[in-house]
Design brief:
This protein is an all-alpha fold. The chain has eight helices and no strands. The two termini are 36 Å apart. The model has no long low-confidence stretch (mean pLDDT 91).
Length: 212
């Protein structure tokens, strides 16, 4: 059987969606079209910092674990140089966003810096992930074993933040995808989603102004 890449697809969708939503929000704040009290600014800063940490961990796991697996499995069938170059572009953006987030509420220019960097990040993620899924997912499906793919997924989970990541999986998964994840993971996943969802919705409402 081919590796099941559903978890990666949903994670990619969540990263793209949250980066774009946050970029739009920060552009509104920088332009004075949105207002934020200290509690909202603090929630935004925490969310942005966790998002950047998750993106960094994901692409680092791809560099250190997934890329070697693909090279070992597919050899000359794939060229990873462009995708690796994209990863190198991500880190300065993630660091800039995290640094600006730490100054929200104390530095008037921080929102503008975040808005600009987040827009660049969202554009880069859109292009990079579309190319990665188009080029690599068929190669993974054809050449990578289930055992090797499991090792990749296990490594990605190791450095994750389950309290941040899991509710976003529930948010961005389509109903049929969520049903498949529950079938694969069993009742523990459903329980965790229920436990974490309420807090996630409250944070979403505070940050974005509604619970989407």
């Amino acid at each position: 059987m081919a590796p099941n890449m559903l978890g990666f697809r949903i994670t990619h969708r969540a990263m793209r969606g949250d980066a774009r939503r946050l970029a739009t929000l920060m552009s509104g704040l920088a332009a004075g079209e949105e207002r934020a009290d200290p509690a909202r600014l603090d929630a935004i800063a925490t969310f942005a910092t966790k998002l950047c940490a998750g993106i960094h961990h994901h692409h680092q796991a791809e560099d250190n674990v997934l890329w070697p697996v693909i090279v070992r499995s597919a050899g000359a069938e794939v060229d990873l140089s462009d995708l690796s170059d994209d990863h190198a572009e991500l880190d300065p953006l993630l660091e800039e966003i995290t640094a600006a987030a730490a100054r929200l509420g104390t530095d008037r220019a921080a929102a503008g810096r975040m808005a600009k960097a987040l827009t660049t990040l969202a554009d880069l993620l859109d292009e990079h992930i579309e190319e990665e899924e188009r080029l690599l997912f068929p190669v993974i499906a054809k050449y990578v074993s289930e055992a090797d793919w499991k090792s990749v997924e296990d490594e990605v989970r190791k450095g994750g933040d389950i309290g941040f990541d899991l509710p976003r999986i529930g948010q961005y998964a389509r109903p049929e995808e969520l049903a498949e994840l529950r079938r694969l993971a069993g009742p523990v996943l459903a329980l965790l989603l229920r436990l974490l969802d309420r807090g996630h919705r409250r944070r979403q409402a505070l940050i974005f102004g509604y619970g989407r």
